[in-house]
Specification:
Elements lengths: L1 H12 L22 E5 L5 E2 L2 E2 L1 E6 L4 E3 L5 E3 L8 E3 L5 E19 L2 E6 L3 E6 L7 E3 L4 E10 L2 E9 L2 H10 L5 E6 H6 L2 H4 L3 E3 L20 H14 L6 E5 L4 H13 L3 E7 L4 E7 L19 H9 L9 H4 L3 H15 E4 L2 E7 H17 L3 E11 L2 E11 L25 E2 L1 E16 L4 E3 L5 E3 L5 H9 L6 E7 L6 H12 L5 E6 L7 H17 L9 E3 L2 H6 L7 H14 L12 E3 L2 E5 L3 E7 L4 E3 L3 E5 L5 E10 L2 E3 L1 E3 L3 E6 L12 E3 L6 E11 L18 E4 L2 E9 L18 E13 L5 E6 L2 E11 L2
Helix pairs in contact: 1-15, 5-9
Length: 782
């Protein structure tokens, strides 16, 4: 994007791009000037309010948080999986794959994960400016700081002769934390003085939008009912609205329960167990506890609290449903407070809660998820406990966070204090290369950020999926491309993908721009990047040795500095584009082709077909071939008519009628083509790159799999096609058989009739009267 801006700026200042003009352009108004597509390795391409991001970063055992309150391993992520983003919204996996790459291990307090060097770390400098320091021996004062320069952190130390000057400088600096993102490999290249100030960070309090359930009962607020639900989850009885407490320790809880019950319009009944020093509490709509009434005299009445538990789906199986997990911050705080009041403790600066793994693992994990959604830092442990002769496995969570003081905990002995230094949401970390290992890749929608299982913020590598869509749908006519690589990073995974896509859509020549050359001091580094790019170009079938490669800096061009790397480099780049990428072949010079749109029989003259000439030119008396829907056959053009006038010639762009000699109307059908003999053939089988429209774009809202049978619209014909996945070399199925709306996928297409098609031809996929996708033919298979 910086290069695009630089080209626009430089060329506009110089009077515009110096593209060659078509000869006789006024005679071919349908022809368009050349379009140059910028392909970069570090851009996220947006469509509406959603865009796609490409990631192949994580080791198979890395765990991600899910909106359902659980976790999923990278190895188990598949198409359609839903992950949780740090803004509380969903990340839907578009596709998944795997392989082996050089991997890195990232270790931080409380966890670790493995990823590729291209993984983008979400980082923060909590204290970007440090108070002044005095060096008495040398007689100066200094202020150290970390700032961002072109998105990369840099360490600075400013020196002053007096403490007053140093204090003034310190006071003038912003103390706000610095948040930025760089790749693992970039982080490794930072000086140690910079790395020691950088932290990874966990998600802050998540907001999930409008709640889907109203918890209020009578005059009791949603927060009060949520607190009571939390108490019931901790100490209540499944299938009933009963609670059990320590009678001599939980007086505050009983008092609040009584007050909320009254607001609900209900009654609180208690029964004390003297032998166990506990009290049983039940909620009822009857003033008299029905267990004290003879069975024949008991009253049946509604129990609003029990009904609310049933509505939430937790009455018989304790859990925290999605409607509660994604409720407002106040409700989640109240829910957590109730759970802590009933079943938690507070000691030595942390909350502590323990549950049985055998009976309450789902509830436990749900509760931890809620805590993390509130910004709490949680440490989970598993240990064995015995009760007499019975062994139990216990799950234990210790936690604290900046909302600790806002939790409406009633029990004084369980009420904690606010966030302390040991529970900061940012954590130091280390990165080490661990060699080549397995990775699991997947592509997600929305933005690239998602949460690991412990709510550490992760980011995937930017990608190209919407760019693929534009290439397939033909939103921009591409006759060439500029492939951009970074002088500091070299080739990225996306560079290979862009070259492959450029090859698939028929780009024959391109130019390479090595950006950020101003950040490289060693000339040999630029030579190495250029050498690697030439090898890669040759690998993908381009002219690696001859392709122009220009080094420069788009940022220098924008800022008007270092002319040889800035403005001059942009001019050199565009000169290379103009000289190397050929002017597209004019449609008038190509072999004649006209799709058949309508057919008429004119008494005394013969059969006339109409359509728009796609390419080339034709004159009366020339031989033509009719291709498609059966064996091809030849005929002769005996007349050309346009707008009721007889003409000698038809040209590209003309809507014309063609009078054919010796052809009966029954031999022709819409969708065939008139072509110069031998220039195009009919096919039934081919491989195509497809883009499947999303529901928001007017497409399907459900996925499809093998043997999907939509209609393909190619030129003027529509024909049923059978779409199947491309199998491996030994006939093995692909990893993901399901094609989701929004996917880019390569599939085999088998038509029910032969039609005239060519490599690079674009088509539309329709079903039930609506467009559901687009595609481009990449290979003819017969």
């Amino acid at each position: 994007t910086t290069l695009t801006a630089a080209i626009t700026k430089v060329l506009s200042e110089g009077g515009g791009a110096q593209f060659r003009d078509y000869a006789d352009i006024d005679k071919a108004p349908e022809e368009k000037a050349r379009g140059i597509t910028i392909s970069t390795a570090h851009v996220e391409y947006e469509t509406g309010n959603r865009h796609y991001a490409h990631v192949d970063c994580f080791g198979p055992n890395v765990e991600f948080a899910t909106p359902e309150g659980g976790v999923v391993r990278a190895a188990d992520v598949k198409q359609g999986s839903v992950l949780l983003g740090p803004d509380g919204s969903q990340r839907i996996v578009q596709k998944a794959w795997g392989g082996e790459k050089i991997m890195y291990r990232v270790v931080y307090a409380g966890g670790e994960f493995t990823c590729t060097g291209g993984h983008i770390l979400c980082l923060r400098v909590d204290t970007p400016v440090h108070p002044p320091q005095a060096d008495i021996q040398r007689g100066y004062h200094s202020v150290a700081s970390v700032t961002l320069e072109n998105g990369v952190p840099a360490y600075h130390r400013a020196y002053f002769k007096s403490a007053t000057e140093a204090e003034a400088h310190y006071d003038a600096q912003s103390k706000a934390p610095v948040v930025f993102e760089i790749t693992v490999e970039q982080f490794q290249q930072l000086p140690a003085t910079v790395r020691e100030h950088i932290r990874m960070f966990r998600a802050d309090t998540l907001e999930f939008g409008a709640p889907t359930v109203d918890l209020a009962i009578g005059d009791a607020t949603q927060e009060e009912v949520a607190w009571m639900i939390g108490v019931w989850l901790g100490d209540g009885s499944c299938g009933d609205a009963r609670f059990t407490f320590h009678s001599d320790k939980d007086g505050e809880i009983l008092t609040k329960l009584s007050a909320i019950t009254s607001k609900m319009g209900m009654y609180l009944h208690t029964y004390k167990y003297s032998d166990r020093n506990s009290v049983c509490v039940s909620l009822s709509s009857n003033a008299v506890c029905q267990s004290d009434v003879a069975p024949e005299d008991r009253l049946e009445s509604a129990n609003p609290f029990r009904a609310k538990l049933s509505e939430l789906g937790v009455l018989d199986v304790k859990s925290i449903p999605d409607a509660l997990r994604r409720h407002s911050v106040a409700v989640r705080c109240a829910l957590a407070a109730g759970f802590i009041d009933a079943d938690g403790t507070y000691s030595k600066g942390q909350f502590d809660l323990e549950q049985s793994k055998a009976t309450h693992s789902v509830l436990f994990n749900n509760f931890v998820w809620v805590l993390r959604s509130l910004g709490f830092v949680c440490h989970i442990h598993q240990h064995d406990a015995s009760s007499g002769v019975v062994e139990h496995v216990k799950l234990r969570v210790r936690f604290n966070g900046h909302l600790a003081e806002e939790l409406p905990i009633v029990s004084a002995r369980k009420r904690g204090s606010a966030l302390v230094r040991n529970w900061a949401t940012s954590v130091p970390f280390t990165v080490d290369a661990i060699g080549e290992h397995e990775f699991c890749g997947f592509e997600v929608d929305v933005d690239g950020r998602m949460l690991l299982a412990d709510f550490v913020v992760a980011h995937n590598c930017p990608g190209h999926a919407d760019y693929i869509k534009n290439m397939i749908t033909g939103a921009a006519q591409m006759d060439g491309a500029i492939i951009v690589v970074s002088a500091t990073d070299g080739q990225m995974p996306q560079t290979r993908e862009h070259l492959l896509l450029a090859k698939q859509v028929g780009i024959k020549k391109l130019v390479v721009f090595i950006n950020k050359a101003d950040a490289i001091d060693d000339e040999e580094m630029l030579e190495l990047v250029e050498m690697e790019m030439r090898e890669l170009l040759s690998e993908y079938g381009f002219e690696g040795d001859a392709t122009p490669i220009v080094s420069g800096s788009a940022l220098c061009a924008l800022e008007g500095r270092v002319p040889n790397l800035g403005v001059e480099a942009i001019h050199k780049l565009m000169a290379a584009v103009d000289a190397w990428i050929p002017t597209p072949e004019r449609d008038l010079d190509k072999p004649f082709l006209m799709p058949v749109e309508d057919i008429f029989s004119i008494a005394g003259r013969g059969t006339v077909v109409t359509g728009r000439v796609e390419r080339g030119r034709i004159t009366k008396g020339q031989e033509l071939e009719v291709v498609g829907y059966g064996a091809p056959f030849k005929t002769t053009l005996t007349g050309v008519e346009m707008f009721h006038k007889q003409l000698e010639e038809g040209r590209a762009g003309d809507n014309m009628g063609a009078l054919l000699r010796g052809v009966k109307r029954e031999a022709l059908t819409r969708g065939q083509v008139l072509a110069a003999p031998g220039t195009i053939k009919a096919h039934k089988n081919f491989i195509a790159s497809l883009y499947v429209l999303t529901e928001e774009e007017g497409g399907r809202h459900t996925p499809f799999t093998d043997n999907y049978r939509p209609q393909l619209f190619v030129r003027t014909c529509d024909v049923t096609a059978v779409l199947t996945h491309v199998r491996g070399p030994n006939g093995e199925d692909p990893e993901n058989m399901m094609v989701m709306p929004g996917d880019n996928v390569t599939m085999k297409c088998e038509l029910l009739a032969e039609i005239a098609i060519e490599t690079g031809m674009r088509f539309t996929i329709r079903e039930g009267g609506r467009t559901v996708g687009t595609g481009v033919v990449t290979e003819l298979t017969e």
